[in-house]
Amino acid sequence: xxxxxxxxxxxxxxxxxxxxxxxxxxxxxxxxxxxxxxxxxxxxxxxxxxxxxxxxxxxxxxxxxxxxxxxxxxxxxxxxxx
Length: 82
Known about the structure:
By secondary structure, the protein is α+β, with helices and mostly antiparallel strands. It has two helices and two strands; from the N terminus they run ββαα. It has helices at about 35-45, 60-65, and strands spanning about 5-10, 15-20. A two-stranded antiparallel sheet has the order 1-2. A hairpin with a 4-residue loop joins strand 1 (about 5-10) and strand 2 (about 15-20).
């Protein structure tokens, strides 16, 4: 796991749990990360209904938003300096 964060919007009665993983295969390690496990149990204790989704890298932001010919280099890889 790279990072994990819970964001609560009290007025909208919404709780977002966001976890970043280095690659798609890593999501199978969720059960071995104590912070992720404890975060996933919190909604049940609070009586909160949940839904979830998995999103993968779809390309450079310039290509996704504007159709630019930018290469689909993962942001998890270091930038190469010229």
